[in-house]
Design goal:
The chain is an alpha/beta fold and 500 residues long. It contains 15 helices and 16 strands. Strands 3-4-5-15-16-14-13 form a 7-stranded mixed beta sheet. A 7-stranded mixed beta sheet has the order 6-12-11-10-9-7-8, sandwiched between helices. A two-stranded antiparallel sheet has the order 1-2. α7 packs parallel to α8. The two termini are 30 Å apart. The structure holds pyridoxal-5'-phosphate. The site of pyridoxal-5'-phosphate (PLP) has 15 residues, from α5.
């Protein structure tokens, strides 16, 4: 796996248990009584199994009744919830702003600096965005009342399609009810059972699910590895010159915050008679010239076959889209992508919000918001690194902080929530065994001071968590290959042989 450094250089990264830096002394923050409590808590949590296991265990439970399988899972998360080690399923108790409060599954509401919301440009609270939603509700109501294949799109949705087309220099756009639906739909809509999909091994779940639903011929390539993608294409074309191929990547990968060489992949796609799809969910709007993300940064505007995006990160809404150079593909996706055809279209307020966000993103205010966002990103990455933490990927609103062992990460996350840093944990099997990480998401509103405070709290919590569990050995891999890169960065068993 390639990681691009902040200075643009590349380094190799193998997603396995990181070599831990020497343990720093226990921080001075907690008093003796608190430390004793923490030790007691850690022993209890460990003895009840709350720090062991993963969601993967409950994919293979063997009860005939699905309710019993769910109950086995519930028993496990109950143990984690009881010990404060289940940082998932949280609900916002106020706006997704830089400072917010979240209700956890243990029923407690915790407030703090918020790095757990995908609100990159802080546009959800923008007065003109809110006003646009209100105006649309007054004019058109709140309901789309149908699929876009029937009568669900609204004329404002047609205008949104045109605005995205103009922005991306890609003349035809189909809207989808969500970003997930767009990723699933572009695969499932365009690809038939004898076709092939060549997919970056770390591509988002919507692309993996769409690919697997469309064809058995799914070929994964090592993360960002153009030469491996080429090998896969060569292998396919050596046996099959008849069927179609989609080659798929993302602008910014959502777990590792790194980017592919889009021009090289596009050239490869054309060389082998394939179409390239780039998922720009995390970079469109919040980065690049005129907010055009990695496609703009890499001078590929208007040169990518299919651009797929989500409005859920920089556009303060739900929704997704696919942009194409072919009018026929635009219309085809409306009737053959089931996640579009059989799902209600975006509602009037969603469309109004997205349109107003695009207007702001493309204005001088949008540039200011991006500048401020990247000031916060640089501050956070720098502050975390200055405290000895491993920050992955390149500067982007996603800041992954490698914590390593899953049990240590769970304990650290519990401490973070109690000390006022709200952030998401990614653990096995979403990433490889013992490469758990915080997936921090930065927004325009974050101040450098908040970033520095958060880095302090994170470094302290991580050191404490390591100290509390330092007698434990890391769990060995159980042989399951998570839907991410293994040590080779590649899942050989998931690669289908090219169709004869
Ligand atoms: C890379 C990527 N693509 C697609 C999606 C799906 O988007 P949405 O949540 O808007 O359905 C996500 C969601 O997080 C994502 O990270």
């Amino acid at each position: 796996m390639k990681i691009i450094n902040d200075d643009g250089g590349a380094q190799s990264f193998v997603p396995q248990t990181p070599s831990m830096p020497p343990l720093p002394p226990l921080p001075s923050t907690p008093g003796v009584a608190e430390l004793e409590n923490l030790h007691l808590w850690a022993r209890n949590a460990k003895s009840t199994g709350a720090l062991d296991g993963s969601t993967r265990d409950f994919l293979t439970t063997t009860a005939r009744n699905p309710v019993l399988r769910a109950e086995a899972f519930m028993d496990w998360i109950d143990r984690r919830i009881k010990h404060g080690g289940f940082p998932f399923g949280k609900a916002l108790a106020s706006k997704p702003a830089a400072q917010t409060s979240l209700r956890y599954l243990d029923g407690r509401t915790r407030g703090g600096i918020n790095f757990s919301s995908q609100e990159y440009l802080s546009l959800a609270s923008h007065p003109s965005v809110q006003q646009a939603a209100i105006d649309a509700i007054k004019r058109l109501g709140v309901h789309s009342a149908g699929s876009s294949a029937l009568a669900g799109n609204i004329v404002d949705g047609n205008a949104l399609e045109q605005e995205i087309a103009d922005w991306l220099h890609t003349p035809h756009v189909t809207l989808f009810p969500t970003g997930w639906a767009a990723g699933y739909g572009v695969c499932r809509g365009l690809i038939r059972p004898n076709d092939h999909i060549v997919l970056d091994v770390l591509a988002h779940n919507c692309l993996q699910e769409g690919a697997n639903a469309a064809t058995k011929n799914v070929h994964l390539y090592r993360h960002l590895d153009v030469s491996h993608a080429k090998k896969q294409l060569q292998r396919i074309r050596a046996k099959d010159d008849v069927n179609g191929i989609l080659l798929i990547t993302e602008g910014i990968f959502s777990m590792d915050a790194d980017s592919p060489d889009i021009a090289a992949l596009q050239a490869l796609a054309h060389e082998y008679g394939a179409l390239l799809v780039v998922d720009v969910a995390h970079d469109l709007g919040c980065s690049g010239p005129d907010g055009t993300g990695q496609i703009g940064v890499q001078n590929m505007l208007g040169k990518v076959d299919l651009v797929m995006g989500a409005f859920s990160k920089s556009f303060a809404s739900n929704g997704g889209f696919v942009a194409t150079h072919s009018h026929a593909v635009k219309e085809y996706l409306r009737y053959y992508a089931p996640s579009n055809t059989f799902s209600n279209a975006l509602s009037p307020p969603q469309i109004a919000i997205i349109r107003e966000c695009i207007r702001i993103i493309r204005s001088p205010e949008g540039q200011l918001r991006r500048d401020q966002l990247f000031t916060a990103i640089t501050a956070l990455r720098g502050e975390l690194r200055a405290r000895g933490l491993t920050v992955m990927g390149q500067p982007s609103p996603i800041v992954p902080v490698l914590l390593g062992r899953d049990d240590v990460a769970r304990v650290a996350c519990k401490l973070l929530a109690e000390r006022g840093v709200l952030t998401n944990l990614v653990e096995y099997p979403a990433v490889s065994n013992n490469s758990a990480r915080l997936r921090m998401q930065v927004m325009t509103e974050h101040t450098p001071e908040q970033c520095s405070n958060a880095a302090d709290i994170i470094a302290t919590a991580w050191a404490e968590a390591q100290a509390l569990l330092q007698t434990e050995q890391p769990e060995q891999s159980d042989g399951f290959v998570a839907p991410v890169a293994d040590a080779e960065g590649f899942h050989s068993q998931r690669v289908a042989e090219p169709a004869e």
